[in-house]
């Protein structure tokens, strides 16, 4: 592979880095050393692969959405079925990896932040699996809109802490998890769920999710006879997108398209699309990246129908892929995502997560203008069972 | 010679320890910030750490986060904080002011503009909580150019290599965070501080201030005996939070006077 980021200090071009208080530097040093040691350790890799296969259910299939493709009359749409993983999303690829690392580092307690609840569930799951105490921080607003996942976490033995500060969403949950970590640094491993945070998290979370793209590179020729013309994935922090993009970065013939949350529409200002809107570069949660903020550098509240995309920043590697021109970033608004959600339900019998529905909506948007011989690969990063309350409410239905 | 150095030199000469109170600019109301600065000096503050409010103060506990939220309700910006310092300087030319906060508001203003405006306003030092030495090269260059002291944190978990790195970049004084956790948390471990300070002195020639967990005259005295200055933050912010607006200045003054008397006994 010729693409070789981040550099040794955790930078992707000008982005990334380690922007945390001195109180966390020791723990990040320790984590970095452990990760460097075990990522090439055959025993670690064997244990990880075993659990990915037998516990998570990998490899996840790729499915040719023929009915949807016919309906659109253009490019063929293929879905990478991360929704079929144990716990219902790509998030578990990363939590298995980090939990195994935590185990080797002798940490008996894991903490996590969560937006939609998928990462929280995936963390609670592996904590149960490996016998660790688990505390999940979740914005109070998200606790309300993702109640099924809150209950799942509790069933799995985790403590869910609703965060009442700030905008009561994902960014506030992240703040609170960082505070827990700095207070309990000796026995606690912080399992970050996305490709953001201080180095080595963006690289580590990408690496653990890169199994998605590695499989796709093998599966696409088997199924479609070739690699896709474009790979499309939704981007909040951007972990599922980095996971599927990573193996394709060195294949210049494959377009990489990240889909951000357009919320009520870019023009409304109420969205979560820092890359699409060229937000100013700033520093939050340990890394430098494009960041939604006001003219005084205060972080502004974002909006998306999807809790998992409702975040003002974005992983630093996406910032770099945008600047370098290797990937392009677009936004899909709430209504478009919701239409794609229903389309996939009706035409393919698959209920997608609202996050993944954004990626799907972009494929639906561009497919009709493309030839029937063109191929789009959409990362269907999660299933939508957790979203049925949200969708019902929007349709005026009480469950 | 910088105002911070002059202040610590003078204290050393008189065998006194520095009292360094902290509060957030604009809390509870922007109109009280300059009066509070003067009142703190009057009550015996040697250096003042003035917090720049930020929407996401990750390294702070709930007390200081709420103070940021109160200030942000009044839309207090970094520009305004600099104006407040400039106003304070019209009648005080001796007491060092250190701006303490997070990097993003500065990043948004631009480091060069910020450093220049600090110099013009009469700011003496800048402590950017989420910019460790590794990420501070750009910041350092601009601050240094305008004669502003970059203040750095050291934690109980900082190893010798890290302490050395901080020693190379720090000016003014070094802020030792005396416990693991966020501001306003936990209990002081005096024995651990007593053990750590001599280790730090091997690398650090600057004065060492200690903060986090200092809540009253007793703890202020105990810590002052071990270092060159005590930083009191959450306790003062708590006093602001619990006071009716018209009593804020008087109540904070009373608290700081008590702390001053205690530190004088060190």
UniProtKB/TrEMBL annotation, chain A:
Tetramer of two alpha and two beta chains. GO terms for molecular function: tryptophan synthase activity. It comes from the Bacteria. PANTHER family: TRYPTOPHAN SYNTHASE, TRYPTOPHAN SYNTHASE-RELATED. Pfam families: PALP. The beta subunit is responsible for the synthesis of L-tryptophan from indole and L-serine. Pathway: Amino-acid biosynthesis; L-tryptophan biosynthesis; L-tryptophan from chorismate: step 5/5. The modification N6-(pyridoxal phosphate)lysine is found at residue 91. It is an enzyme of class 4 (lyase). InterPro entries: Trp_synth_b_CS (IPR006653), Trp_synth_beta (IPR006654), Trp_synth_beta/beta-like (IPR023026), TrpB-like_PALP (IPR001926), TrpB-like_PALP_sf (IPR036052). Its EC number is 4.2.1.20. Its cofactor is pyridoxal 5'-phosphate. GO terms for cellular component: cytoplasm. Residues 57-382 form the Tryptophan synthase beta chain-like PALP domain. Belongs to the TrpB family. Keywords: Amino-acid biosynthesis, Aromatic amino acid biosynthesis, Lyase, Pyridoxal phosphate, Tryptophan biosynthesis. It catalyses: (1S,2R)-1-C-(indol-3-yl)glycerol 3-phosphate + L-serine = D-glyceraldehyde 3-phosphate + L-tryptophan + H2O. It comes from Candidatus Gallionella acididurans. This is Tryptophan synthase beta chain.
TrEMBL record, chain B:
The active site is at residues 49, 60. GO terms for cellular component: cytosol. Keywords: Amino-acid biosynthesis, Aromatic amino acid biosynthesis, Lyase, Tryptophan biosynthesis. The keyword Lyase applies. It catalyses: (1S,2R)-1-C-(indol-3-yl)glycerol 3-phosphate + L-serine = D-glyceraldehyde 3-phosphate + L-tryptophan + H2O. The keyword DNA-binding does not apply. PROSITE patterns: TRP_SYNTHASE_ALPHA (PS00167). GO terms for molecular function: tryptophan synthase activity. Its EC number is 4.2.1.20. Gene3D superfamilies: Aldolase class I. It comes from the Bacteria. Tetramer of two alpha and two beta chains. Belongs to the TrpA family. The alpha subunit is responsible for the aldol cleavage of indoleglycerol phosphate to indole and glyceraldehyde 3-phosphate. This is Tryptophan synthase alpha chain. The gene is trpA.
């Amino acid at each position: 592979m010729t693409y070789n980021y981040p550099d040794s200090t955790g930078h992707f071009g000008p982005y990334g880095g380690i922007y945390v208080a001195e109180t966390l530097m020791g723990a990040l040093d320790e984590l970095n050393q452990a990760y460097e040691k075990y990522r090439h350790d055959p025993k670690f890799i064997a244990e990880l692969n075993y659990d990915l296969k037998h516990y998570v259910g990998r490899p996840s299939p790729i499915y040719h959405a023929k009915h949807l493709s016919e309906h659109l009359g253009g490019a063929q749409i293929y879905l990478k079925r991360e929704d079929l993983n144990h716990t219902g999303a790509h998030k578990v690829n990363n939590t298995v990896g980090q939990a195994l690392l935590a185990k080797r580092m002798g940490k008996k307690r894991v903490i996590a932040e969560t937006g939609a609840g998928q990462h929280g569930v995936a963390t609670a799951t592996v904590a149960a699996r490996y016998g660790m105490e688990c505390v999940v921080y979740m914005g109070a607003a998200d606790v309300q809109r993702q109640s099924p996942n809150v209950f799942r976490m509790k069933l799995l033995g985790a403590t869910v802490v609703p965060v009442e500060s700030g905008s009561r969403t994902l960014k506030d949950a992240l703040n609170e998890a960082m505070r827990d970590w700095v207070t309990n640094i000796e026995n606690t491993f912080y399992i970050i769920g996305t490709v953001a945070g201080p180095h080595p998290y963006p690289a580590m979370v990408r690496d653990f999710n890169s199994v998605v793209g590695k499989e796709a590179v093998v599966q696409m020729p088997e199924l479609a006879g070739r690699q896709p013309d474009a790979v499309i994935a939704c981007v909040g922090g951007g972990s599922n997108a980095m996971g599927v993009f990573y193996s394709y970065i060195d294949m210049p013939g494959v377009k990489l398209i990240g889909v951000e949350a357009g919320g009520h529409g870019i023009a409304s200002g109420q969205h979560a699309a820092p890359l699409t809107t060229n937000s100013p570069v700033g520093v939050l949660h340990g890394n430098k990246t494009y960041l939604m903020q006001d003219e005084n550098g205060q972080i502004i509240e974002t909006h998306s129908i999807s809790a998992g995309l409702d975040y003002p920043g974005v992983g630093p590697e996406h910032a770099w892929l945008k600047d370098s021109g290797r990937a392009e970033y677009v936004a899909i608004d709430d209504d478009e995502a919701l239409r794609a959600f229903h389309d996939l339900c009706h035409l393919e019998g698959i209920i997608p997560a609202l996050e993944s529905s954004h990626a799907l909506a972009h494929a639906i948007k561009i497919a009709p203008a493309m030839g029937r011989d063109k191929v789009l690969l959409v990362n269907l990063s999660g299933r939508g069972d957790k979203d049925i309350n949200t969708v019902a409410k929007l349709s005026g239905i009480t469950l | 010679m910088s105002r911070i150095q002059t202040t610590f030199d003078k204290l050393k000469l008189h065998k006194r320890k520095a009292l360094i109170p902290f509060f957030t600019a604009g809390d509870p109301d922007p109109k009280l910030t300059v009066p509070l600065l003067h009142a703190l000096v009057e009550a015996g503050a040697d250096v003042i750490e003035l917090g720049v409010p930020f929407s996401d103060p990750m390294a702070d506990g709930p007390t200081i986060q709420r103070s940021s939220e109160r200030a942000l309700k009044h839309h207090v910006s970094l520009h305004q904080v600099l104006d407040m310092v400039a106003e304070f300087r019209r009648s005080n030319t001796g007491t060092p002011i250190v701006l303490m906060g997070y990097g993003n508001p500065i990043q948004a203003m631009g480091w060069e503009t910020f450093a220049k405006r600090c110099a013009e306003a009469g700011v003496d030092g800048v402590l950017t909580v989420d910019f460790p030495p590794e990420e501070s090269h750009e910041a350092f260059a601009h601050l240094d150019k305008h004669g502003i002291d970059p203040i750095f944190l050291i934690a109980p978990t900082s190893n010798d290599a890290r302490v050395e790195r901080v020693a190379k970049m720090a000016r003014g004084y070094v802020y030792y965070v005396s416990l693991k956790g966020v501001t306003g948390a936990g209990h002081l471990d005096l024995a651990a501080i007593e053990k750590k300070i001599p280790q730090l002195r091997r690398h650090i020639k600057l004065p060492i201030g200690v903060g986090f967990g200092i809540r009253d005259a007793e703890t202020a005295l105990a810590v002052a005996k071990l270092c060159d200055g005590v930083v009191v933050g959450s306790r003062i912010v708590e006093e602001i939070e619990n006071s009716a607006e018209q009593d804020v200045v008087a109540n904070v003054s009373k608290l700081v006077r008590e702390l001053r008397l205690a530190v004088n006994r060190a």
